[in-house]
Design a protein that fits this description.
It comes from Elstera litoralis. InterPro entries: MoCF_Sase_C, MOSC_domain, Pyrv_Knase-like_insert_dom_sf. One of its GO terms (molecular function) is pyridoxal phosphate binding. 14% of the residues lie in helices and 34% in strands. By secondary structure, it is of the alpha+beta class. It has a single domain (5-171), classed as M1 Pyruvate Kinase, Domain 3, CATH 2.40.33.20. The chain has a seven-stranded mixed beta barrel with strand order 1-6-5-11-8-7-13. The chain has a three-stranded antiparallel beta sheet with strand order 4-3-12, with no helix packed on it. The radius of gyration is 15 Å and the shape is globular. The two termini are 23 Å apart.
Length: 183
């Protein structure tokens, strides 16, 4: 069973479609929309490759969360990654985000709630940022299945301000739990 509490380490956003996001003192989540001022916010899909396929898809990637424990793992492989550098909005500590089931809700700070929709699928932009990074965030489990470690995507259920130091409480969905898949 994954840890059911954690904390926000850092928050980031970018008003333009660029790979890295700039660290902020605070971000504001808006229900059904995402991070105010971030290029990926909106009710419809905003990731450019997905917009080309179908611009009317719902945006299941409003908020990107990543565990800072991954940054430590990557540092051991020679990659210096800081919060916001690989495109996440919220960097966490103390939560095994990848082990949570689809539909898990995270209550963050005094009022924000996001619902995990799936895994971030690592893409070539990681290698454009730092050569070899895509491979570094991929692994295999004991059964040989691919493990994507580059964070989780979510939608905003309840809005609110989020900042470093905020507590995160995990609210698991009803069983049966469905494992995360790329969105």
């Amino acid at each position: 069973m994954p840890t059911l509490t954690g904390a926000v380490v850092a928050v980031s956003l970018s008003p333009t479609h660029r790979f890295s996001k700039s660290p902020q003192l605070q971000i504001h989540l808006r229900a059904g929309f995402g991070v105010e001022g971030d290029a990926h916010a909106g009710t419809k899909v905003k990731h450019r490759s997905r917009v080309r396929k179908d611009p009317d898809q719902p945006n299941l990637r409003q908020v990107h969360l990543i565990h800072t424990e991954l940054f430590e793992e990557l540092a051991a492989k020679g990659f210096d990654i800081t919060p916001g550098a690989i495109g996440e909005n919220i960097a966490t500590r103390g939560l095994d985000l990848l082990a949570l089931p689809q539909g898990t809700r995270l209550a963050i700070g005094p009022s924000a709630i996001v619902e995990i929709t799936g895994l971030r699928n690592p893409c070539a932009q990681l290698d454009n940022y730092k050569s070899g990074l895509t491979q570094a965030v991929l692994d295999r489990d004991a059964g040989g299945a691919l493990v994507r470690k580059s964070g989780v995507m979510s939608i905003v259920i309840a809005g609110g301000a989020v900042q470093a130091g905020d507590a995160i409480q995990v609210i698991l969905p009803p069983e049966p739990h469905r494992p995360l898949a790329p969105v």
